[in-house]
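User: Good morning. I'm curious how pyridoxal-5'-phosphate would be positioned relative to this chain. Could you predict the structure with it bound?
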Amino acid sequence: MEFIDLKAQYRALQPRMDERIQSVLQSTRFIGGPEVKELETQLAAFVGRKHCISCANGTEALQLAFMAYGVEEGDAVFCPDMTFISSVEPAVMLGATPVFCDIDPDTYNLDPRSLEAHVEQVEREGKLRPRFVVAVDFLGNPADFEAISRICDAHGLVLIEDAAQATGASHQGKRCGSFGDVATTSFFPSKPLGCYGDGGAVFTDDDETASLLNSLKVHGKGPKGKYDNVRIGLNSRLDTLQAAVLLTKLEVLEDEIKVRQQVARRYAEALSGKLKVPFVKEGDTSAWAQYCVLAESPAQRQKVLDAMKAANVPSLIYYPHVLHKLDAFAPWENTPAPNAEQYADCNFGLPFSPYLTEEDQQKVIDVVLKAL
Ligand SMILES: Cc1ncc(COP(=O)(O)O)c(C=O)c1O
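Assistant: Good morning! Here's the predicted structure, ligand included:
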């Protein structure tokens, strides 16, 4: 059994996938081929944004967003303490200070109350400029955008939606990637929409921001082309082969998201009451990038993980550390985040994909229940 079954997905899509890949190979337009623009147009329409700017990976999507909004030294960037390092790493590399907030114990997403308390504290201290909030759709589950947007509006903060794990998810009828001033995603292979290598994208409704992002991702190119460099930028292009892969997968994404709901329901029905299962708000749809449950203690988690290993059922702790305790963030003083720490200590992910057979789902459930 695979933790995320990309082999089965490839088998299901093979004729169409091979045809599209072959077409790029024949064209030899490996950079900037027509598939890239086609993907950007289709993804912008899918997500419900005016512009999609593809780029090399989800980390650089965030870097481009921070650069477009002029992040600088002395800026405070607020983000959840439980996420992947990329949510804040590019801003810190560009001189900003990370301020980690706690998560909601049910959704595992940025807790608006903790965010507001941290913003007010930074304002009171007066040492940093409160500037950015990164709201992550953690594990594919949409963040609380109403409450977070209200705080951003009240304090004049730029809101970045980090939808790396949430392509295909939706919040109150709107797709993830459409929230905040600007949104980003990742096409890392295991993501709900993943390519066969690295890839990412930025979404915006603002024409000027889109044009700035298009310049920043190609060495700060100017109106006269790529040798007319008008600012310092990056080399952060999505290559044509990855765009071809993504176009093929985009055709089945909606159907896959539906099947993901069925697998999640099955796990929830079998495991709730025995483990803490993920909570998705009424009106929201998770993309289920991962299906992570919480044991009641680290010891209970270890017992289940041992049983899964013995039965050849793969598992993953996603993620094992809160960000503020990582060595990389040691230079910055941050406050405890009890809910994020509890999550880090007790979470584990179950094998999950739209291609996980019912038989394998049952095997996972049986092994976990027996261990408990
Ligand atoms: C929440 C989050 N943000 C950003 C990223 C960065 O994406 P990439 O790995 O494509 O750079 C990831 C991917 O792992 C992620 O999970």
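Residues 57-59, 83-84, 86-87, 136, 162, 164-165, 186, 188, 198, 200 surround pyridoxal-5'-phosphate (CB under 6 Å). Residues 240-271 form the longest helix (32 residues).
Let me know if you'd like a different ligand tried.
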